[in-house]
């Protein structure tokens, strides 16, 4: 078993044990070999990132809510302690996201020649900057949001070479539209991006096999839910 195979096996083993930090570390080792990741290896990267970053985001949301409640009760000492803990989580989340962004820029993008992989990495880069924009404020928030939009926009342009039903293309459209609505406060742009992605995919959905159709339908259902929700918001503009 060569080094790459060993890292893949270790990543899968860590996934089964739900040790996602270690899983992500093993996939990083593969990326730093400066090789084109297979679809399976990309999925390991996605799962590792989703779980590691997702846990930190959930901690941040919970602590932020607790802090607000303590402030509302006038318990400033408790609120201060929670705020310190929240800032610790923010620091950890910043480190993780910046590390992934660096991995993408220095190793993953330079090592790929496949359109789907390029779209995948630009989406992941946009996601990381979007997460940073969620908890930062002022100039740092604006910078993170702008970098997220830039990465997503590059991905959207590259995704034009993929089928409208492609899972990576659909998930990019979904995540980009969430940035536009939730962070940038552009509900109209979010609405039309999500609607266009949905409208382009639906007519050719029946051309897919059952397994591919199932994956695309899940994303299309979320896009449609957002389109319906945001349609009410844009009536106010």
UniProtKB/TrEMBL annotation:
Return the annotated site residues (Interaction with phosphoserine on interacting protein).
57, 130
- Per the UniProt record, the source organism is Salix dunnii
Q: Which family does it belong to?
A: Belongs to the 14-3-3 family.
- 14-3-3 domain location is 4-236
Q: Which Gene3D superfamilies match?
A: 14-3-3 domain
Q: What is this protein called?
A: 14-3-3 domain-containing protein
In Pfam terms, one family for this protein is 14-3-3
What's the domain of life for this entry?
A: Eukaryota
Which InterPro entries is this protein grouped with? 14-3-3, 14-3-3_dom_sf, 14-3-3_domain
Q: Which PANTHER family does the UniProt record give?
A: 14-3-3 PROTEIN
């Amino acid at each position: 078993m060569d080094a790459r195979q060993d890292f893949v096996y270790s990543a899968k083993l860590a996934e089964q044990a739900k040790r996602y930090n270690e899983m992500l570390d093993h996939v990083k080792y593969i990326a730093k070999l400066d090789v084109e990741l297979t679809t399976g290896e990309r999925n390991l990267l996605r799962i590792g990132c989703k779980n590691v970053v997702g846990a930190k985001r959930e901690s941040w949301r919970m602590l932020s809510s607790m802090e607000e409640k303590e402030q509302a009760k006038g318990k400033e000492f408790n609120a201060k302690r929670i705020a310190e803990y929240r800032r610790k989580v923010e620091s950890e989340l910043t480190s993780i996201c910046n590390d992934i962004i660096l991995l993408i820029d220095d190793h993953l993008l330079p090592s790929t020649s496949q359109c789907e992989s390029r779209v995948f990495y630009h989406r992941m880069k946009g996601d990381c900057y979007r997460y940073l924009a969620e908890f930062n404020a002022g100039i740092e928030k604006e910078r993170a949001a702008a970098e997220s939009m830039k990465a997503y926009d590059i991905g959207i342009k590259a995704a034009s070479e993929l089928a409208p039903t492609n899972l990576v293309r659909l998930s990019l459209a979904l995540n980009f539209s969430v940035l536009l609505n939730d962070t940038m406060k552009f509900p109209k742009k979010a609405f039309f991006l999500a609607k266009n992605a949905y409208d382009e995919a639906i007519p050719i959905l029946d051309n897919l096999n059952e397994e591919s159709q199932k994956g695309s339908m899940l994303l299309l259902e979320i896009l449609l839910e957002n389109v319906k929700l945001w349609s009410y918001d844009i009536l106010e503009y």
